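Two quick folds needed for the group meeting slides. Do the first one here.
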Amino acid sequence: MMRPAHVESVAETFRMLGAQTRVRILDGLGEGELCVGDIAKAVGMSESAVSHQLRLLRTFRLVRVRREGRQAYYAVDDHHILELLNQARTHVEEGS
């Protein structure tokens, strides 16, 4: 059985993945790193709304940021997050 601290972290990860907006952002980042403006265009949201979601995703280590001058580029923190999304997508598509 998982340790209580791990159970809590896993539940928080799934909670972060439980919002359509965050799933769309992570899906877009699956193609590679993007700046906030490009993410906002891809998901059809304002930059400030995307920034807020990215801040949450960073807090839970689902995305990371790389700064280049004044520009910030975001990427999925590690391949496990994309694997979770792909497994969920496969599950949904098999049920259709």
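Then this one, please, same format:
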Amino acid sequence: MADLEPIYLFSYGTLRQPEVQIATFGRYLDGSDDAMPGYRTSWVEITDPDVLATSGERFHPIVEASADPADKVAGTVFQISEEELWAADSYEVSDYARTTVRLQSGISAWVYVKADEQAEGDRLAALIAAEQRAFALLDALEAANVIAPGRTELEIERDIFAIASRDFGVTSHWHDRVVRAGVNTLCVAGEAAPDRTVMDDDIVFLDLGPVFGDWEADVGRSYAVGDNPEKHRLVADLEVVFDAVSQRFASDPDITGAGLYAAAQEEAERRGWHFGGKIAGHLVGKFPYARSPAGKDGGRVSPANDQRMRDPDRHGQARHWILEVHLVAQDGTFGGFYERLLLVA
């Protein structure tokens, strides 16, 4: 698996204050001067008592895109960890939304800008449209026969990125590893594994995270390459389990992330499989939402998430979820994966 790129955070406001850094990150950040072209600054009144106490300031600067290309916002760029990025999310109030920008120096950095007040119907429609495009990409990959015995995972990945760019205009993917074959199908997201050659009797799964415009998609499918009936049964059961877990979600408006994870385990066992994922899904939204899903455990379908999944986000908007089904054979020799939006009809 490729190493993740460094994480940069650009601040034009109170995150540059030493006392705010200590309270938020537990350390002083070492940064360098930079600027964000194409944006302008205004001010927002802060009412959150914790932020007021930490910053000592009632009015904070806030930025939004400018129609004047000569406009730019000066500030400081810091290199931080992913955990510190989540801490910054917790510090910022609901008037701000995190996005990526290309700084004057050429660095691509996270920054907090004025939150977009897009209508809920439009947000959901955009996510569904992105998912439909992602499934069309999967269909195109199948038509191109990218999965075949004798090909390595990395060879398949290169074809995926080439077809995504050439035929679908995709230039960003919010996660790196997209192909797992054979014993690597036992791995969870983010777990390193050596490049593997697809064998005649493997299961192969594709886990795609293309970004279409401003919106993330996250879809996964599995393929049984040979004739093994148990592997074909597992691949077929992925969508069966997905539908059963979706029904559990639809029937319980108070279900928590931990509750839905337990439901995924139960439905997997009901079909004769183990549930192989450490999580069973996560939040998804306007890019780059999924890369750091708001509070980590609170943004995942996991045993650690005791929050109700239907609770709104800090902007008062509905949260949208990806449901992941990772099934593993009882003897632990192979697995399969399927994921898509979790929707309530």
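Slide caption for protein two: The two ends are 37 Å apart (CA to CA).
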